[in-house]
Each structure stands twice: as C-alpha cells, then as structure tokens.
Amino acid sequence: MLSIGLTGGIGTGKSLVSNLLNDFGATVVNADLLGHEAYLPGTIGFDLVVDAFGNKIVGDDGTVDRKKLGPIVFSSPENMAKLNSIMHPLIHDMIQAQLTEYSSNGTDVVVVEAAVLMEANWEALFDEIWVVTSERETVIERLQGRNSLTREDAIARIDSQMSQEERIEHSHVVVVNDGTTGDLADNAKKIWNTRVVNN
Asked: Among 100, 125, 149, 187, which is least packed by CB within 10 angstroms?
C-alpha cells in the first residue's frame, strides 16, 4: 500500500486535489474530520480539552462548542499550543490506526489530507508527502472571495502558517494550482500516473 500525506497552506486547493485523487482511485482520509471525532463526548480527547479549557467550552448539547473554543485558542499562541499538544498525538494515532486497517484490507493507495501535517510532525506516517502550492496573490484573491476576508486578514492568515517554501522543502511532490480547475486536474493526473500508476 502507498500512503500519501497531502498538505498545503490555506487557499491552495488541498480539498480539490484530494477529491481528484479520490476520483483517480485513492482512498481519502480527512484529518480535520478525525480531529472533530477526537474530542466527541466520551473520548479521552473530550476529557483532556475540557480539563484544559474549562466547562465554558461545552455547548448545550454536551459537545465541545467550536465557536466557544475558537476565540480562546486563536487569540492566544499559548492556548493554541496547549490545544495542539492534546489533539495532534490523538489524531496521529487515529491516522495510524486507519492506515493499518486499510493496509490489512488490501487497499492500494491512501491519501490523508492534513493541513497541519508538517507542523504536527506526522511525516513518518507516510511513504510520500505531496504539497499543493499556489502563488501568494492567487491565494489572497481566493480567500477574499471564498472567505469574505479583507486583503489584510487574508495576508495575516497566510503569514500565520508555515511558509510554502518550507513545505516544499519537506515534500516529495509539488502539485501546482495556479490556473483553472481543468489545469489542476491535468497536473494532478500527470503526477498520479507518474508516481502511482507507472511506479
């Protein structure tokens, strides 16, 4: 089984690429969705997060309310680091368990889409790391249109993340997304054929 970790900065098109790879035949796992599962009520993640940030983050339905937790962690690097120190190891183990299960089931290719793959030090889980890249101005325009952000807010979001250059340095494959959706599909298909089909 080939395991691919797919990452990239905000607005680069990771989800588009993971959808394309799914169409090509890969099994796709979304680390963000695993993250949501990692602190559902009754899990160790729920207990650890509530212990760290208090009952004020629990909503009326008994789950962690992301609208209450968000402002607490995004306004404080210390709180974000605290949350990450709880969640990243839990999500790591969930990814590892899924990869083991898919491998034993005879799955050929698994792609794990994970925005924080490198920041969380998950590289060792995968055979290859693929990074999706886009020109900075393209990303700014996407964020202004898609997320209704001001130019300043879009730049702040981009600059708060690991740099694209650093991601490229630690990856095996770069998927460039600077043109149309069709261009991206063609580019992804060429890479898929080279790295997966003909390898």
From this structure: 100
Q: How many CB atoms lie within 10 A of CB 194?
A: 11
The predicted structure's pLDDT at residue 156: 86
CB atoms within 10 A of CB 36: 14
Residue type, 130: W
Which domain covers residue 167, as residue numbers?
2-197
What strand order describes the sheet that includes 27-30? 27-30, 109-113, 2-8, 128-133, 173-176
pLDDT tens-digit profile of 96-119? Answer: 999 999 999 999 999 999 999 999
Of 51, 2, 12, give the one whose Cα is nearest residue 143: 12
Domain containing residue 80: CATH number: 3.40.50.300
**pTM metric for this prediction:** 0.92
**With contact defined as beta carbons under 8 Å apart, do 114 and 4 qualify?**
no
Distance of CA 91 to the CA centre of its chain: 11
